Give the backbone structure.
Amino acid sequence: MEPIKLNKRLELIASYVKKDNIVADIGTDHAFLPIYLAQNGIAKKIYASDINEKPLENAKKYIKKYKLEQSVQLFLSNGLKVIPNDYQTVVIAGMGGELIAEILNATEIKTGVQLILQPMTFIEYTREFLYKNNFKIIDENLVMDENKLYTVLNAVKCDIFEEYSLTDTLISKKLLDKKSELKNKYIKKLINKHKQIYNGLKKSANNDELKIENEIKILEILENL
């Protein structure tokens, strides 16, 4: 059986998984990541879950195909709710940032647990949630996969709250420190997004001054990075 090949997005996620950790992959879909982690001896034990039956059936087929039934345990679960709590790494990828925060907020994450998150939307919301809830961003990186730009966060649960700013929610210090074309592309994308929001607010009959002021502040930050 040939080893499974991951796309660039999942490759970046896999590269952050600490060796010999017990991994919980939430919203596993086809279970490609758990299969890769098992085949390469990266994870000690793997839990793969989904909230819906159909993706879980797909995952089951692939796990059976690669003969990894003993290495990957499947769970029908809303987030982490029915996952055994001995996990050391949690992966949540391919979901909106608000949903990721909701999943994490519904469970008591133990100190030292690693989070690998790949939000599709509302990335600023995900970062703010992490800062507010004593998660430290260890690293953040970008990857281009099939002409789409993805952001992957590597964080850990800590005991200490660290102060953060609006800038930190827009782009983490770890990502800001990186010298890459993708980072520049990411900042330009953010500027365009917030210009659209600002223009939309200006045209709106509601004319929410507080929101307009906030967008002006965000654009000033981004344009000076």
